[in-house]
From TrEMBL, chain A:
It is a multi-pass membrane protein. It is found in: Cell membrane; Membrane. Belongs to the CPA3 antiporters (TC 2.A.63) subunit D family. This is Monovalent cation/H+ antiporter subunit D. The keyword Transmembrane applies. It comes from Alteraurantiacibacter palmitatis.
TrEMBL record, chain B:
It is a multi-pass membrane protein. This is Na+/H+ antiporter subunit C. It holds the Pfam family Oxidored_q2. The chain crosses the membrane at residues 6-23, 30-53, 73-94.
Length: 507, 122
């Protein structure tokens, strides 16, 4: 099934091509990059349609049989993540092109393509060390994108972001080393089998490896207390790049979900449900911190950064119970929260561009051109992120609440989610009134503000509306995805014995 | 003294030094700390294939046992990545120093005063 390789291969080729002199210096690069983005979006839709039937497809790179070679695995969750990534990336790239952000440095489009390569690879790979490599690719591209456009604040924040992630990568290697030392394999499906059959004297090492691994993913997901790098990094990079980074925390969430359900499940001995003990309290506190920070933010991008922490906290709080229902609720909420926080960053960029010197500070200023449309967009984003009725955020939060109702920790989860929803509403009302309601004076024209720059934000909003309108099929898909995650024998079988009918399309 | 003890204590000392340096406030020592951490991790990864002396990794006609070749491949990958990242972080730190006039990771000037740029708030 060669199409599985396409989301990795295409950005690699296009990214390398865009580094050449002509596409870098002329507008050719922009059009090639946009065209490739559209093709990738098409591929992601095709993969999603393929995976929706519930078959687990694998692709053995170089035809080396698992567990000796690296396999790519396509199933519902990875297809969903690739699709979310590509929709988001298409909107962000369109925004960057419309606002000419991509002309403010040399390498925006190559870096963007390599970012896509790393993201798709991380979602599709079935090998733990390969996951590390794709993490590195997406991080290296993200360093470049984060610093794109430069400026002293961005450099300062960039140094911290890079250092934190380098330490994270080092710890990732420790975890991989520990798990490899005990199990002797790096293929995740094979590792799952070996962890289940590990002898008693290896249990302590296995548990340590599992906890260290999940801690690294928690760092990427900005779970408290490992969230401190996020607000400064996201608030100081350019807003469209921050919008793309909304998916980066979800890579951490995805990896926690993948490794825990596959390798550290019911029969993993001492490593069984390794993160379950501490993840729920950590997620609840980071959810609270995120929305408290949202109320305290003084810039719209800072507010959006805290919204990312809060929404990821909501996701992880639901996931931390590791029951099929709560995981299904998290999977339904995941695309919505990603798109909504990205949309907020795009709106923040529109606001900052239209207001000129006031940037996106939450202070009242003069009225600006296009304020009606931008304020409407802001209102819709706020409705989406707070989780108010017509949009999918409400359905997602409702699913999370009903999925966690039976749990022992239900009072904590319910009060945290409902309380922070209220806090978020206050924060957005405060920001909106400062930006739009209190502004007075004559509209100032600002030549840098293009009217069409709101188009990508409207595009993301259309996806949010579709998620709410198609809530029935979407929740059924989320439930099927959760069931597939918990039925790990099928995954293991598809990877290790691809000749069986459940497996791939390989002859 | 066994090889295991030597390797294990070397990894431990390097990790401790790396963490100490990475927590310092100046970018130069942070970079040194990161480099030292990555050395420690490379040795750690290598030893995860068990320390075997005088054995071939892939194939040899007269070999009775083999050493694990996979960690060596992993270490090679990790070295390449760590090397590239160290280069990047050095350039980045230098650039940040030249742009902001301080090599402090928080961007605070050397007299301990406020950040010169009020736009730092989030």
């Amino acid at each position: 099934m060669n199409l599985i390789l396409a989301p990795i291969l295409l950005p690699a080729v296009i990214g390398a091509f865009l580094l050449l002199r002509t596409p870098r210096l002329t507008r050719l690069g922009r059009y090639v990059s946009l065209g490739a983005m559209l093709v990738q979006l098409g591929i992601a839709v095709a993969l999603f349609a393929l995976a929706a039937d519930g078959t687990i497809r694998t692709y053995a790179l170089g035809d080396w049989v698992a567990p000796f070679g690296i396999v790519l695995v396509l199933e519902r969750l990875s297809a969903l993540m690739v699709l979310v990534t590509n929709i988001l990336a298409a909107a962000v790239m369109l925004h960057a092109v419309l606002t000419d952000l991509d002309r403010r440095g040399w390498h925006f489009h190559p870096l963007f393509q390599f970012q896509l390569l790393g993201l798709s690879g991380a979602f599709l790979t079935g090998d733990l060390f390969n996951l590390f490599v794709f993490f590195e690719i997406l991080l290296i591209a993200s360093y470049g994108l984060m610093l794109h456009g430069q400026g002293s604040e961005r450099l300062q924040a960039g140094v911290q972001y890079v250092v934190v992630n380098l330490v994270g990568s080092t710890v990732f290697l420790v975890a991989v080393g520990l798990l490899y030392g005990v199990t002797g394999t790096l293929n995740m499906a094979d590792m799952a089998v070996r962890i289940a059959n590990a002898p008693a004297q290896d249990q302590a090492l296995l548990r340590t490896g599992a906890q260290v691994l999940i801690a690294v993913f928690a760092l990427k997901a900005a779970l408290l207390p490992l969230h401190l790098w996020l607000p400064r990094a996201y608030a100081n990079t350019s807003a469209p790049v921050a919008a793309l980074f909304a998916i980066l925390t979800k890579v951490g969430v995805y990896s926690i979900l993948r490794t825990t359900t596959l390798m550290f499940g019911e029969d993993a001995g001492a490593a069984a449900w390794a993160p379950a003990g501490w993840m729920l309290p950590a997620a609840l506190v980071s959810l609270t911190i995120g929305f408290v920070g949202l109320v305290a933010a003084r810039r719209l991008r800072g507010l959006a950064a805290f919204a990312v922490i809060g929404s990821t906290g909501t996701l992880l709080a639901s996931m931390a119970l590791f029951t099929p229902a709560s995981v299904a609720a998290a999977i339904y909420y995941l695309p919505h929260s990603t798109f909504a926080s990205a949309m907020l960053f795009l709106v923040a960029d529109c606001v900052a561009r239209a207001r000129g010197p006031l940037d996106d500070r939450l202070e009242a200023g003069a009225r600006f051109a296009g304020m009606g449309q931008i304020s409407l967009l802001f209102l819709l984003t706020a409705v989406a992120l707070v989780g108010l009725p017509p949009l999918a955020g409400f359905i997602g939060k409702l699913m999370i609440l009903s999925a966690t109702a039976e749990a022992d920790a239900a009072p904590w989860i319910w009060s945290a989610i409902l309380g922070t929803t209220f806090l978020a509403m206050i924060g957005f009302a405060r920001a909106g009134s400062a930006l739009f309601w209190k502004s007075a004076g004559e509209p100032q024209s600002n030549p840098t503000a293009g009217k069409a720059a709101t188009l990508p934000a409207w595009g993301i909003f259309a996806v949010l509306v579709a998620l709410a309108a198609l809530a029935g099929p979407a929740t059924r898909f989320a439930e099927a995805t959760a069931q597939q995650l918990f039925a790990r024998e099928a995954y293991i079988g598809a990877v290790l014995q691809p000749e069986l009918p459940q497996g791939s399309d390989r002859p | 003294m066994s090889v295991e003890f030597l390797v294990a204590s070397a990894i431990g000392v390097m990790t401790a030094a790396g963490i100490y340096l990475a927590l310092r406030g100046r970018t130069f020592s942070v970079v040194l700390g990161l480099a030292m951490l990555s050395y420690a991790i490379n040795a750690f990864l290598f030893s995860m294939g068990r320390l075997v002396i005088d054995q071939p990794p892939i194939w040899s006609a007269d070999a009775a046992t083999y050493t694990d070749p996979l960690p060596q491949a992993l270490v090679l990958t990790a070295i390449v990545i760590a090397f590239g990242m160290t280069a990047l972080v050095v350039v980045l730190a230098l650039r940040a120093y030249l742009e902001t006039g301080t090599d402090h990771v928080d961007g605070l000037p050397d007299d301990g005063g406020q950040h010169p740029d009020a736009g730092d708030e989030v």
